[in-house]
Amino acid sequence: MLSGDSMNERKCPKCGAMLKYNSLNGSLECEYCRAKFNLEEFNISNQFNLYMCKNCGAKLISKKQTAVNNCIYCNSQNIEQSVLSSYNADYIIPFKISKNDAINTLKKIYRNKWLKSKEFKSSNLNNVTAIYVPITLYDFDAIGVVEYECSLVSKWLSGGYKYTKCDKYKEIRGGKMTIENMPVASVKEDIVSDVEPFDYKEIKKFDSSLTDLIQITDYTKEELVDKSIKKAKECFENQLKNDIKDYDEISTINNSVNLNKLKAINILVPIWLLIVKYNGQKYKFIVNGQTGKSTGIVPRNLKKTIIIFIITFILTFIILFILNYLKVIS
Predict the structure, then answer these.
(1) What is the 3-state secondary structure (H, E, C) of the chain?
(2) 216 phi and psi, to 5 degrees?
(3) How far apart are CA 277 and CA 282, in angstroms?
(4) Burial of 296 from C-beta contacts in 10 A (0-12 / 13-18 / 19+)
(5) What are the tens digits of pLDDT across the range 238-255?
(6) Distance (Å, whole) CA 268 – CA 205
(7) Residues 206, 94: contact at Cβ < 8 Å?
(8) Is the predicted pLDDT of residue 4 greater than 50, yes or no?
(9) How confident is the model at residue 154 (pLDDT cuts 50, 70, 90)?
(10) CA-CA distances (angstroms) from residue 87 to 13, 139, 231?
(11) Listed residue (92, 137, 150) closest to 232, CA to CA
(12) For 145, how many CA atoms within 13 A lie in the half-sphere containing its CB?
């Protein structure tokens, strides 16, 4: 979890009240007189601490003034700390969704889940954490030919038997297209894809004063290029496949696609993240820090589910017994 103690202990020059650090805009704010101050006014450094979780391998960096005591992914305290003199990205999308907005969004996921476990009580939502996650945006020119295997399935009954017939066909499509702003996750634990898209028109030049907690990329540039090529080919294949109609199944059997990389930029995107452990599994609740789009699944409590099933079974049995008894005596 995060604690920005050194920044939050500073007093407001106007009224003397304690200032609070706002990670949304990177300023210090007084909740009493509503005054706002830039970090530079207090000579706060932009140096970062680098944290590596020895349990799950997650790598995070935070402001020099902010401590990371627990891994946000596995909650382990087995964290190795070092100093990072500088960090840079090409662009950043600032947070537009506040913590209260993120909590209210997640409450909608929790709402009416009366079979949920106690681990998913609403008070846990206060542990939601703001984090910037790196992605790389690619532009490609693509040209090529793709061969597809297409199937038509027929089913019928005859003489008391069920019959299934599958006819196979080959379709070939070719073309060219420009793929723009294709996002590729730069971390292995992808927490971005499920809450895309982002509005890339709102990107700003990277400014460390806008950040508080950042996840470090898990891939080299070469590995990211390999991932982007694979994804670009899939985009190209799927686009051509949309032109094929009236089949039950369509699969790619061969392709010849040439790609020309036009652009690659590194962007930090804003994410609100909450991870709850239950029955040895991690349940991720994610809110897009720009648009508010959210995702997350609240699992059912097994004991509660069994109890409800037993009660329902007994009530059904009693009702059927009474109805049958009334039918007999009538």
Answers:
(1) CEECHHHHCCECCCCCCEEEEECCCCEEEECCCCCEEEHHHHCCCCCEEEEEECCCCCEEEEECCCEECCCCCCCCCCEEEEEECCCCCCEECCCCCCHHHHHHHHHHHHCCCCCECHHHCHHHHHHCEEEEEEEEEEEEEEEEEEEEEEEEEEEEEECCEEEEEEEEEEEEEEEEEEEEEEEEECCCCCCCHHHCCCCHHHCEECCHHHCCEEECCCCCHHHHHHHHHHHHHHHHHHHHHCCCCCCCEEEEEEEEEEEEEEEEEEEEEEEEEEEEEECCEEEEEEEECCCCCEECCCCECHHHHHHHHHHHHHHHHHHHHHHHHHHHHC
(2) -90, 145
(3) 5
(4) buried
(5) 999 999 999 999 999 999
(6) 10
(7) no
(8) no
(9) very high
(10) 31, 24, 27
(11) 137
(12) 3
The residues that bridge with 322 in the sheet, in sequence order, are none
**For the chain, how big is the Rg over CA atoms in Å?**
27
Residue 58 and residue 128 in contact, taking contact as beta carbons nearer than 8 Å: no
Enumerate residues 6+ apart whose C-beta is below 8 A from 49.
Answer: 61, 62, 63, 64, 66, 67, 68, 81, 82, 83, 84
Token output for 263: 């652009």
CA 296, CA 191: separation in Å to the nearest integer? 11
Strand 59-63 vs strand 67-68: parallel, antiparallel, or unpaired?
unpaired
327: tokens are 């039918």
Task: State the Cα–Cα distance between residues 129 and 4, nearest whole angstrom.
Answer: 13
Residue 95 burial (10 A CB sphere; 0-12, 13-18, 19+): buried
The count of C-alpha atoms lying within 13 angstroms of the C-alpha of 52, restricted to the half-sphere facing its C-beta, is 8
- Cα gap 202→85, rounded to integer Å: 28
Phi, psi of 295 (to 5 degrees): -150, 155
Amino acid making up residue 163 = Y
- Least-confidence region, from 222-236, 252-266, 316-330: 316-330
Tokens for 175, please give them: 């073309």
Residue 65: pLDDT band (50, 70, 90) is low
Backbone angles phi, psi at 181, to 5 degrees: 50, 45
